[in-house]
Write a structure and sequence with these properties.
The chain is built from 10 helices and 7 strands. It has a 4-stranded parallel sheet with strand order 5-4-6-7. Strands 2-1-3 form a 3-stranded parallel sheet, with helices on both faces. α1 packs across α10 and α5 packs across α10.
Length: about 230
């Protein structure tokens, strides 16, 4: 068993949205308890943003402003004594270079953690679900295809719009409808040839679980947490 002194402090940038940030906190503590046993809990520092501000800038396509916000958060974490930075969202990794270029502590990229997990399962053709930005922009898929040699499939345009609406209008507001769950499952089941599904939005596991889908499911939030704990105790 590792001693308490060896456990590193995990810095979280949260609030995008707060529902999934809460899940990160819970999962980090549960995971380190599983790994270390006893009464161990995670050493965590969190800086949480106002999602309304991020949401507006996202739809204004002002990624530079978003980058500056997360950079300031990262610098706060570094100054506060965090040993690593975890950005509790998939989409905002689009501006992760604002973090890596302005801090010296390690940054754990969610797409890298996900790519590693898929490789370990020896899968090749993977469906990516997430916000429209995550599915359509290359910041996420490029890592999976170029670095991990995966074949990434995204839904058709109409389906991407439906998934995007469910995330922004429902899940990010803490609203979960069975009809939306059924719609997501139907979209997945209608795509042929895929070997697994990436839940590329940290809110999606709140409405979808492995038991809902016949294929292997990659919960990016949990994968991200597992990697952070691995770094924290080694």
């Amino acid at each position: 068993m590792k001693s308490k002194a060896q456990v590193k402090t995990i810095g979280l940038i949260g609030g995008m949205g707060w529902e999934s940030s809460k899940l990160y906190y819970e999962r980090l503590n549960k995971k380190i308890g599983e790994v270390l046993g006893g009464s161990h809990s995670a050493k965590i520092i969190m800086v949480s943003v106002n999602f309304a501000e991020i949401e507006k800038l996202t739809f204004d396509n002002d990624w530079k402003a978003i980058g500056n916000i997360v950079m300031r958060c990262a610098l706060q974490l570094e100054k506060a004594g965090a040993d690593m930075i975890v950005l509790c969202t998939n989409l905002i990794h689009l501006v992760s270079d604002f973090i890596t270029e302005n801090t010296v502590i390690p940054f754990i990229h969610i797409a890298d953690a996900t790519g590693e997990a898929i490789q370990k399962n020896k899968l090749q053709k993977i469906l990516l679900l997430g916000t429209r930005f995550t599915m359509e922009k290359e910041f996420y898929t490029n890592i999976l295809t170029q670095k991990y040699k995966l074949e990434v499939v995204i839904p058709k345009e109409e389906e991407r719009q439906i998934i995007h609406r469910i995330i922004y209008d429902e899940l990010l507001k803490g609203v979960f409808y069975n009809k939306s769950k059924e719609t997501l499952i139907h979209i997945i089941e209608c795509i042929e040839g895929i070997e697994g599904v990436i839940l590329g939005c940290t809110e999606l596991p709140m409405i979808l679980s492995e038991s809902d889908i016949k294929l292997p499911v990659f919960d990016t939030g949990q994968i991200h947490v597992n990697k952070a704990i691995e770094k924290a105790i080694n």
